[in-house]
Amino acid sequence: MDQNFGKKVVTGISWQFAERIMASAVTFIVSVILSRILDPSDYGVIAILMVFIAIADVFITASFNTSLIQKKDTDEVDYSSVFWFCLVFSIFVYFILFIAAPFISDFYHHEILRPLLRILGLKVIISSLNSVQRAYVQKNMMFKKFFFSTLIGTLISAAVGIYMAIKGYGPYALVGQTLTNAIIDTIVLWLTIDWHPAVLFDKSRLKPLINFGSKMLAASLLDTIYQNLRTLIIGKVYTTEDLAYYNKGRNLPEMLTTNINSSAGTVLMSAMSNIQDDMVQLKNTLRKSLKLFSLVIMPLMFGLLATARNVIIVLYTEKWLPALPFMIITCLMCSVEAIQVINLQAIKSKGRSDIVLILEVIKKGYGIAILLVTMRMGVLYIALGGLSQTVVALLCNTYPNVKLVNYKYSEQFGDVLPPLICSLIMCGAVYFVGSLISNNLIALIVQVITGVFLYVLLSYFIQRENFNEVLKLLDKFRRR
Asked: How many structural domains does the chain have?
């Protein structure tokens, strides 16, 4: 791998990790505070709304952003044309949300959904104002910019959310936090990035971007609808409290892995696109990334699985204990998430959006089928159905790279086996230690210390090469 290119990738991943770790820490603390103040039903209401916001956001951020990053010769006309198109289209999407709000409210039998959706829907327009800036940052691997915009936005929005919750605004506190974060993030990006939209628009430039982006949009839209389909069904068939417990169980493991995987996905998509014609270098980058991210994510998830009960009681109080089985299931699902994400970025970097779309149809087709089977059986069975879909998705996302970059199944399994073995041994030991102590707080502290020490020790002997590589990355970031 070229030394300058490798250095750029390491720097990008380092800043992305720093941004995600910082955002996760603040978000986590705020989540703990708000969970103690707000009722589970408040979270259930917002969970329903965020589904529609997430779907609307896909139309603005999922297609052209990826197209701009993947295109080799992007210029000012491309960026500006996409910016103006996204802005106008976001207003149209918000108008649809505004009109649909009463119908959504009636469907779920919650009158408060109407005003909340019309306020929260403004996030779609705000997202359009920074979508191209984000693509520009990713294209040029200027990830340090994300760090500061996220830092400022997360801190200010946290203060707003906590203040509104204390004052008794209920679900409006969560809406206020979300909108404030989006607004501050946009302002900081506009002030710190040297690119700004010009009065330029060329629809002919949009055509090749649409050709690639339309497939990515379809894949992302399918993925977003599918990922939130369980939320929509649980919110309709069961209670908002059931939905809140389901989401709370998912939140912590997904927050940890999503932030890490988004760092990997954002940087690796840019990095792999630059070396898409070099098969050997692309495979080496894919393989090294898979080893390093598995070394980090697997122990996080299996450690959280072993401490889940104490985590919920200590952080959220016993009123959230019904979320325990959902946290355990989500930990198992997220433990292999990095394998899927990294393989998918390699496929995207080769410009094979057609394969991405086919994979999404297969994965989501199975997921919808299993959801239809389990939806009336109970929320727990719905979650277990999601776990089975993760296994199918893992097989689907890894298969194309067997041919595209000659990364065989046996090689992939061999690369993730050492962190898997270390994580399983650590998980069993941590759970056993926790069962010996009755005080939840003390048990959690002892479990965390035991888990960290044991995993580091096992990694040193079982996967020393990967372990040393992580230490080198941390040392490089510390020196920056």
From this structure: 1
